[in-house]
């Protein structure tokens, strides 16, 4: 018996938003296997589409990774805004939220911090990154529109502190300090002590 039904094209996607599905699959691979395991083919396979399907949204791997990093910066910004609403010392709460985000999302944070994997000209990524930086700047009382050199320096110092502590935490670099610290000290105790030591009167 013949039928007029035809097989769907191999790259037809039946589960909603293909772009978002690709990003979700990419992040799942990133968390599970690391950055080196990411390829457009691997992501397409995980999403259940043909290897050509991602090209409808992402011309190359760098564009997909840039979109994923942009999502990471958006989530980081949301975390910083939520921290600012807690009350207390805004700068300290923002720093804690930044480091907590990095600790909760180590693979994604590493991607966000790796310019060699990203498209620096990607407008979505640039916008998301600038939003996060502006929120951090606001926590330090700086104006992103026309900051003074002193304010830019303070922004750089604050960003370097939280970024450096995040990378040290993720790479397990506190071992020596824990060995010489009082018994029972944890890596997060050292992070908190570092943040407290960097506090300055406003």
Number of helices: 9
Label the overall shape: globular
Helix/sheet category: mainly alpha
Q: Termini separation (Å)?
A: 82 Å
Mean pLDDT: 88
Q: Write down the domain tally.
A: 2
Strand tally is 0
Largest sheet: none
Quaternary assembly: single chain
Strand content: under 5%
What attributes does this structure have?
202 residues; mainly alpha; Tetracycline Repressor, domain 2; disordered N terminus; 0% strand; Arc Repressor Mutant, subunit A; globular
Report on the structure:
The protein is mainly α. The chain has two domains: 12-58, Homeodomain-like (Arc Repressor Mutant, subunit A); 69-197, Tetracycline Repressor, domain 2, CATH 1.10.357. The chain is 62% helix and 0% strand. It contains nine helices and no strands. It starts with 17 loop residues before the first helix and ends in a 5-residue tail after the last helix. Residues 1-14 have low confidence and may be disordered.
List strands and helices in order, with pairings.
Blueprint: H1 18-33, H2 40-47, H3 61-84, H4 90-104, H5 106-112, H6 123-139, H7 149-170, H8 175-180, H9 187-197
Helix pairs in contact: 1-2, 1-3, 3-4, 3-5, 3-6, 4-5, 4-7, 7-9
């Amino acid at each position: 018996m013949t039928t007029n039904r035809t097989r769907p094209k191999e790259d037809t996607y039946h589960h909603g938003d293909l772009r978002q599905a690709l990003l979700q699959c990419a992040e799942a691979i990133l968390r599970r296997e690391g950055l080196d395991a990411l390829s457009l083919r691997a992501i397409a396979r995980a999403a259940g589409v043909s290897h050509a399907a991602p090209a409808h949204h992402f011309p190359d791997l760098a564009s997909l990774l840039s979109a994923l990093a942009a999502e990471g910066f958006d989530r980081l910004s949301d975390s910083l805004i939520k921290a600012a609403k807690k009350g207390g010392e805004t700068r300290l709460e923002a720093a804690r939220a930044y480091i907590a985000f990095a600790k909760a999302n180590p693979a994604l944070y590493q991607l966000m911090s790796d310019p060699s994997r990203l498209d620096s000209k990607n407008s979505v990524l640039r916008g998301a990154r600038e939003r996060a930086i502006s929120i951090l700047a606001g926590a330090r009382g700086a104006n992103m529109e026309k900051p003074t050199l002193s304010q830019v320096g303070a922004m750089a110092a604050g960003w370097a502190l939280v970024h450096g502590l995040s990378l040290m935490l993720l790479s397990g670099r506190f071992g020596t300090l824990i060995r010489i610290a009082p018994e029972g000290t944890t890596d997060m105790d050292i992070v908190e002590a570092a943040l407290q030591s960097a506090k300055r009167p406003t």
